[in-house]
Amino acid sequence: MTTKTGLRVNGRPASPGDPGKRLLDFLREDLDLTGAKEGCGMGECGACTVLVDGEPVCSCLVLVGQIAGADVVTAEGLAERGLHPVQEAFVEAHASQCGFCTPGMIVSAAALLSRDQRPDEDAVRLALAGNLCRCTGYASIFTALRKAQGR
User: Fold this and answer.
1) What is the DSSP code (8-state) at residue 90?
2) Could you tell me the pTM of the whole model?
């Protein structure tokens, strides 16, 4: 159970000391969860995407005090019992190059597939619209999502 100021991160209670700290900084600095990356710092690139109560959120835009009692899942949390099907599919499809955007892409894709096991291409594009990748050209990422469907 969480306290008024606490939250759960990857299934474990976590108590941020400063409610004014960005979620991204709390995850990276206090919890050593470095999957979410600081990209633009303005919620435009998606590199810092995590799930808050099951919804993709840019962690650079959220203060931990705003999500007291919430359940946060990071890319690391998706893999706590072995690779998540989306992570497996990214490996199989060679869907990352530099890897900077990969955790955010995976978290966004996992959220989509939790709502819709067989999304069409428009739904995939919409779900990933907030995640920018400068290396892959997106084709391998879309291939990975097709591979992950129904797993």
Assistant:
1) H
2) 0.91
